[in-house]
Amino acid sequence: MSNAPYQLKQSLMTLGAGGVLGAGLGKGFQKLSFLPEANTDFVFAVIGEELGLLGTLTVIALWVGLYAVGLRLLSPLDEKSFAYHAGFSLLTQLRAAGHAQHGPW
Prior knowledge:
About 65% of the residues lie in helices and about 0% in strands. The protein is an all-alpha fold. It is elongated and about 50 Å long. It has helices at about 5-15, 30-35, 45-75, 80-100. Helix 1 crosses helix 3 (about 45-75) and helix 3 runs antiparallel to helix 4.
């Protein structure tokens, strides 16, 4: 961790600063002075600081639930149809957006 870039160190410190329950919505301190690009690149870290472990797990559960609903909506379609392929492509992009937002874990 000592060789990690400044942004990574600060994002992990921000994520861990919230503990289990968080500091409270809007009461995060790291985003004000230490965390670079808190409003774009490190949104998940700010959620972790303000809403804690429970908030981050809720966000992950919402992403997984949205993906599961999308898969369920695709299930009755024929796998060779255009609608299936278009829907699956959009669902894959949704999953990629989740990874870009929260990291690959």
